[in-house]
Amino acid sequence: MTELIYPQMPEHSLVVLIGPSGAGKSTIARTWPASQVLSLDALREVVSDDAGDQDATGDAVAALHLLLEARMRRRLFTVVDATNVTRSAREPLIAAAQRNDMLPIAVMVATLGSVCIERQGPRPANRTVPEDVVVKQHQAMVASHRTLKAEGFSEIVFSDSLYRLLPFLERLSETRQADLGLDGSVGLGDLNLVSRVFGEEILPLWQWKPGSNVADGDRVAEIRLGQQYLTLALRTDVDGEGDVGFDVLVPCPHDDECTGRAWVPAYSVTCLFRALNGDLDDDEDIVCTAHGPNNGDDQDDDLEAQDLEVIHG
Ligand SMILES: [Zn+2]
To answer: How many CB atoms neighbour CB 143 within 10 A?
Structure first.
């Protein structure tokens, strides 16, 4: 084995991960930017909607080779995330690298076979690889170590000697700093909280509604896509303890014609889904500005409504 100084991989490298299912290849691959990683599982999902569909492997491999060639031609650093335990799987990868004067580096993800098998347990059913297949993949990986140099790999390293945690955290940190605007950009600003609570995917649909008074002076926002939308309020003193959180507007559970506004806390994107889907329409945490809290008991609700009518004349 060559003494390469890691984590510095040469810029013009093709990193070929080699290891059985469950070895942890994808965990290592994710430490590089997503654009640099060609994942066979991901491509299986692209072509078939199912990352575990073995019938889609042929098409996925063809797609991988096409994308690899495009990246090698541009001489871009690339990681191939697939088992790559057979010579026939590795050959076209090495050839693509060599055609384009790229350095093929073999990275052995030599996790114990028993650990690889254990890790199949918690996986989704479509991603579970049978034990005998994992054992065979593991044996093939061990056997291939002897031939990698002859196959054309410039370097052969074990994944344990890659110090990938530091560059991984560095990249995550840069993203976070940019979100916070600490890199000199405007950052996400008041969308940081939105991103933390509901996830960054919601941000393109999020619009603050300055001047709206539907939430009694609290900030109002809308999530809209075409005709479908949700109205949200930013509460800055939840439970009187200064906590910050969101409420989402739902129909009043007491009265279809209610002139008040019924709000229910939204803790996550799941609450948004349930609110739009109508699943929160009778939630016990709803508070209507006209009817008050929803105690979930229809009879009492009616009585309360009648009481209110009496009060309001
Ligand atoms: Zn109401």
So the answer is: 12
Q: Alpha helices, DSSP H only, in the chain? A: 25-29, 40-48, 57-73, 87-99, 113-118, 131-144, 148-151, 165-179, 192-198, 269-277, 298-312
Q: Taking all residues of the chain, what is their mean pLDDT, rounded to a whole number?
A: 89
Q: CA-to-CA distance for 120 and 92, rounded, in angstroms? A: 28
Packing angle between helix 40-48 and helix 57-73, nearest 10 degrees?
120
258 Cα to the center of ligand 1, angstroms: 5
User: What is the per-residue pLDDT across 134-191, written as a single tens digit (0 to 9) for each?
Assistant: 999 999 999 999 999 999 999 999 998 888 888 899 999 998 888 888 887 777 878 8
Burial group, residue 65, by CB count within 10 angstroms (0-12, 13-18, 19+): middle
Helix, strand or coil, per DSSP, at residue 229:
strand
Give me the residue spans of the domains in the chain.
13-172, 192-300
Alpha carbon of 308 to ligand 1 centroid (Å): 11
- Tokens representing residue 293 in the block: 């809290």
Q: How far is the CA of 272 from the centre of ligand 1 (A)?
A: 20
Interatomic CA distance for residues 153 and 162, integer angstroms: 17
Distance 260 CA to ligand 1 centre (A): 5
Distance, CA of 83 to CA of 85 (rounded, Å): 5
Please state, in angstroms and as integers, the Cα–Cα distance from residue 287 to each residue in 19, 162, 275, 295, following that order.
55, 54, 14, 9
- The CATH code for residues 13-172 is 3.40.50.300
Cis peptide before 7 (omega within 30 of 0): yes
CA of 64 to the centre of ligand 1 (A): 57
Is residue 87 within 8 Å of 144, Cβ to Cβ? Answer: yes
Q: Give the Å distance between the CA of 209 and the centre of ligand 1.
A: 23
* CA 77 / ligand 1 centre spacing (Å): 60
